[in-house]
Design goal:
Organism: Siculibacillus lacustris
CATH topology of one domain: Rossmann fold
Strand order of the largest sheet: 6-7-8-3-9-10
CATH architecture of one domain: 3-Layer(aba) Sandwich
Low-confidence stretches: none
Bound molecules: adenosine-5'-triphosphate
Pfam families: ABC_tran (PF00005)
CATH class of one domain: Alpha Beta
Protein name: ABC transporter ATP-binding protein
Keywords: ATP-binding, Nucleotide-binding, Transport
Number of helices: 7
Family: Belongs to the ABC transporter superfamily.
Mean pLDDT: 91
Distance between the termini: 32 Å
Length: 276
């Protein structure tokens, strides 16, 4: 494990970089809630980094700071070597909730991003069909979201994000609502698509196995308040990976044991506080 202190390398080589970022929320009738203490880390270009931590520790808050949705109380967020100002326009987001529009077909949902950006309808439709094929939904182009399964809607969501070729991907429990088997299938699909051009990914999950199966590095967050990164583990499993098969690998188990031994103490703290 490497020490989780200052981010490595100059800002220009990092896709995402946080320097001493602190995040606090005003609470009505109280002093502020210090959610995240001074935190520094970097995600290199082409790197897939996950953040794991106990529930409520601040994983989404950190991701939202990179997205520009939460303004840090201190420190600096940089994206592709430039300090972040306002919303992060270079990012594609995938959240737990579906972002599909219920009144549009799968094809129209995927084409929408290009149409809004001013691309002619015929061109947007052609690319959308191509992306639906890549996510395994070629035959479902004319279905509305309520006619799709949860996993299929997630595939539409992935196509919606990737068709715009964002420079970085920010994902917050994107496969959260799916059953375990579908999550693994979606994880493998994500890795296959990611391998084509390896964008930097910051992926938030409470599922340590998912984090190890997908990532190049797994960061561990401590329990809040004043949460911080307390572990930074390199995942030296070979790629390409099948996110189901990789779980049978001996090295996967070694990594799981090492990371869980650090994470467990934080999870126990959180449950201890909740039941106190
Ligand atoms: N807008 C807000 N105002 C006040 N407190 C907030 C706000 N957003 C988040 N928090 C608090 O900050 C802490 C971190 O929340 P966050 O959603 O980032 O946790 P998380 O690690 O993503 O949790 P989970 O795994 O359960 O989704 C929590 O204690 C939460 O109550």
């Amino acid at each position: 494990m490497s020490a989780p202190d200052a981010p490595p390398g100059p800002a220009a080589t990092s896709a995402i970089r946080l320097d001493d970022v602190r995040i606090a929320f005003p609470i009505k009738g109280q002093s502020t809630y210090e959610a995240v203490a001074s935190t520094s880390f970097a995600v290199a270009e082409s790197e897939f980094v996950s953040i794991v931590g106990p529930t409520g520790c601040g994983k989404s808050t950190l991701l939202n700071a990179v997205a520009g949705l939460v303004k840090p109380a201190g420190g600096r967020v940089s994206v592709l070597g430039r300090p972040l100002v306002g919303l992060c326009r270079e990012a594609g987001y995938l959240f737990q909730q579906d972002a599909v529009m219920p009144w549009k077909t799968a094809l129209d949902n995927v084409a929408l991003g290009l149409e809004v950006a001013g691309r002619p309808r015929a061109e947007a439709e052609r690319e959308a069909r191509d992306w639906l094929t890549r996510v395994g939904l070629a035959r479902f182009a004319d279905r509305y979201p309520h006619q799709l399964s949860g996993g299929q809607r997630k595939r539409v969501g992935l196509a919606q994000v990737l068709i715009r070729h964002p420079k970085i991907l920010l994902m917050d429990e994107p496969f959260g609502p799916l059953d375990a088997q579908t999550r693994q299938i979606m994880g493998t699909l994500l890795l296959d698509l990611w391998a084509a051009d390896r964008k930097a990914v910051l992926f938030v999950t409470h599922d340590l196995e998912e984090a190890i199966a997908l990532s190049d590095r797994v960061l561990i967050m401590s329990a809040g308040p004043n949460a911080r990164i307390i572990g930074d583990h390199r995942i030296d499993l070979a790629r390409p990976r099948d996110t189901a098969d990789i779980r049978l690998d001996r090295r996967f188990h070694e990594l799981h044991r090492a990371i869980w031994s650090e994470l467990k103490a934080e999870v126990v703290k959180t449950y201890g506080e909740a039941s106190a």
